[in-house]
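Need tokens for this chain, all 477 residues.
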Amino acid sequence: MTSRSFFLAPALSVALLSGCAIGPDYQRPQTAAPLEYKQAAGWTQANPSDSLARGAWWELYGDPQLNALVEKLNSANQSVAQSEAQFRQAQALVRSARGAFLPSADLSVGKTRSSQGTGSSNSSLTSSSSGIRDTLNAQVGVSWEADVWGKLRRDLEANEASAEASLADLAAMRLSQQSELVQNYLQLRVIDEQKRLLEATVEAYQRSLKMSENQYRAGISGKDAVAQAQTQLRNTQASLIDLIWQRAQFENAIAVLTGQAPAGFNLAEIKNVPKLPQIPVSLPSQLLERRPDIASAERSVIAANANIGVAKAAYYPDFSLSLSGGYSSSQYQDWISVPNRFWSVGPKISLPLFDGGQRSAEVDRNEAVYDQTVAKYRQTVLDGLREVENYMVQLKVLGDESVVQEQALESARESLRLTSNQYKAGLIAYLDVVSVQTTALSTERSVLNLLQSRLIASVQLIAALGGGWDGNTELSD
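Here are the structure tokens for all 477 residues:
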């Protein structure tokens, strides 16, 4: 065999074998996803498409200050910053895996001092030389591993899937933080509305107390009416004070979510509560398309599947080609010269013959990891379906309840008006007025609590759908 055939034969063999890749090809695991949602006809299952743009879903609430806060969160939230840094780490691993396909080169320059004995037991024959020798070496080495069994390709596949999962984790973290901020903001605005209600109620109760005191001094009513009016007023004032720390908690939470210290953050009161968005129930389901946590779980399955191929490739021999050359001399003078030149080139095949079952154990471990990620993916889908069903039925029930509660509020206001007129005319005792006033205030607060629950449920549903439903534009990045 000629020297040319000696190098061509391994190269041809590598080229023929490099088309295959050890390990199973990925197939999406089957999930128990229904064709439509139970709580709303018309919601149908769609294919995963988490790359679709979600849009500024928080703008549905029509509050410019909320919009500004979310934009601040997108750029300054520290939990999002952590996830973004993790994604950049995953991207670096992908670049490293791609670099494994290319040859590697290294340069080494060094000096060694060595000594070798004469090998004779006769001391009279021992050389007078010390036997110490200095050697100067300058060498360039190039090596390349042929990806015959697809180990490098499977490793790249796993790293790319992990990077995509990390990107989906980043989107999930951003969506989670946005949802938390919007919920906190909406609750804070409802507290502002409750504060205005209680302040107006306190003023009305103060007028009632003054009226009771005047009637007591005139001998029209007893002192018990004054005591009842005072009790009612103080209880309402205490409720008003209680709102202060509740509001402060939401304000501080918003400050941290936007990357600011609570001490330097303040949200002034506004007169209007953000509107409840109209969420259509006839759109195709976006759950599996839009939820980044489901996308992340599936891409983790892809990575685990590819890692099985990496583990199985360890059973097969590695093919590599190495080339090295340089200069070696015992003196600095004329070190880099043709007489001191050396080189070597040749293919190499390596195969572990015995490892005590380590490769088999590694394959079993990766197969178990794959089964674990499949189960996690399926559970994530089921959890997502459950969340959407829960929030949809919650919004529907709360909507029906709010209609009845509004009717109750109208009746309570009318009853309070009539009762107050009767008390002013001296037809009833103040105790009757207190009872009606308490009922009216409780009904007013119930209406606000229902509005708060509906607003929060709407945010949770939008987040459960992956961040809105208007996603016809592909993301540019």
